[in-house]
Amino acid sequence: MTAVSEPRATKAIARARRRAPYDAESLLDVAVQVFNERGYDGTSMEDLAQAAGISKSSFYHHVEGKEALLAAACDRALDALTAIREDPLAQEGRAVERLENVLRLTVMALITELPYVTLLLRVRGNTASEKKALERRRDFDRFATDLVTQAIADGDLRTDIEPALATKLVFGLVNSLIEWYRPGRTPSDEVVNSTVSLALVGLRA
Amino acid sequence: MTAVSEPRATKAIARARRRAPYDAESLLDVAVQVFNERGYDGTSMEDLAQAAGISKSSFYHHVEGKEALLAAACDRALDALTAIREDPLAQEGRAVERLENVLRLTVMALITELPYVTLLLRVRGNTASEKKALERRRDFDRFATDLVTQAIADGDLRTDIEPALATKLVFGLVNSLIEWYRPGRTPSDEVVNSTVSLALVGLRA
DNA sequence: GTCTATAAATTGATAGAC
DNA sequence: GTCTATCAATTTATAGAC
Questions:
Q1: In whole numbers, what is the pLDDT of chain B averaged over residues?
Q2: B contact residues 45-64, partner A, Cβ 8 Å cutoff
Q3: CATH code 1.10.357.10 region(s) in chain A
Q4: Residue A18 predicted with pLDDT over 70
Q5: Per-residue pLDDT at B8
Q6: Exposure winner among A90, B3, B26, B52, fewest CB in 10 A?
């Protein structure tokens, strides 16, 4: 059974099944992990190549460059956040219910896309692609602020905290997950429930 | 009244009064500001010199080097946090009262030392001095965790959230201030009260 | 696809004149 | 104290052999 005698499709599948060790996606995973450990600017392409177990030149064969890696990671995180806005749970019911759903979906997105969102939330805006990522992030912030503002106007949340301030506090609480949450330590269900509960109990009228 | 005829002490005072434009402290302020804008690793000594309005070489005349600037800034932030542990308000009364005081003092420290604490909370631990700063920071985290644990054991805080998780959430909320608080926008009193209130109301039994 | 070699630019830091 | 000039190391990225 030599590979030569097999049809092309079979070869492609076999290749995929044994998980080609170095495809663009797995190298992105490696890069994002190292970026999060040492910081994006504190990581050299040599660091990434070593973490992947190949030479720097081979690494470049698979990826466009350092900034493209960061942009791809940010896009993945931002796509996850954007999907929340379009989720039916974010569009029906009272504002306070939509807010609770959005908070829950956000915590879940933070957990499932943790490395990517971590990188996104640390972006400083030094380059053009970083500025673009920050702009998309601000879109989500505005969406969240509108939701909190509406819930307060509905009389469902305490009125002694400014809407903009309340939003920043609640999403600051939620986003702080990237600083301490590590998969496998605490069941993610418990983290989701505790986080949403703590945020909303403190905020309710 | 020529400078030549004045005694040395007078000259020194006059020099100090007109605020020598480039002393080590004011250059640290400049450096910390730029570090926070572009990230520590994303900032070059050339960037710092330009921000200070002098050449890179002149800048080096006043400061030891890049890492020393970071260490000095972290030390200042950590000194502010350490002072909280030694504050009488953190040592008397029930654990839940001490916790409320510590939360309030922490928010106040974040606000008064904002640039320094911001830099500290972003340190990744890449160098020896950064690792040392992270270790001092962990000391404060342990102190905070003990306080929350005790308050839960006292029956003053809700028991359905793990002490370690509750601590991370509450201090995640408090520390998120560095991401959005900017002096002069919202009165600091309002931020302190709202932050402490939101955190504790959500946490109380 | 992988590698060694190297280019081209930047960086932290210093030398030494004024 | 400030500057220009420069060093030595590092960094992003490419060339080209296998």
A1: 93
A2: none
A3: 73-201
A4: no
A5: 53
A6: B3
First to last CA, chain A: 71
B185 touches A at CB < 8 Å = no
Intervals of CATH 1.10.10.60 along chain A: 6-63
Q: Tokens for A164, please give them.
A: 């903009």
A191 touches chain B (CB under 8 A): yes
Q: What is the pLDDT of residue B20?
A: 59
Q: Identify whether the C-beta of residue A122 lies closer than 8 Å to the C-beta of residue B178.
A: no
- pLDDT value for B111: 98
3-state SS, A144-159, equals HHHHHHHHHHCCCECC
Place of tokens 């970071």: B70
B160 DSSP assignment: S
Q: Do B161 and A197 touch (CB under 8 A)?
A: yes
B73-201 classified as CATH 1.10.357.10? yes
Q: A176–B177: do the CB atoms touch at under 8 Å?
A: no
Query: Given A39, A186, A202, which is nearest B199 (Cβ)?
Result: A202
Amino acid at A146: D
pTM of the model: 0.92
What average pLDDT does the segment B82-89 reach? 98
Could you please report the per-residue DSSP string of B79-112? HHHHHHHHSGGGTSS-HHHHHHHHHHHHHHHHHH
Q: Are A147 and A94 in contact (CB under 8 A)?
A: no
Rounded to an integer, what is the distance from CA A35 to the centroid of its chain? 14
Name residue, tokens 């059974």: A1
What is the topology classification, in CATH, of domain B6-63? Arc Repressor Mutant, subunit A (1.10.10)
Closest nucleotide to B60, Cα to C1': C13
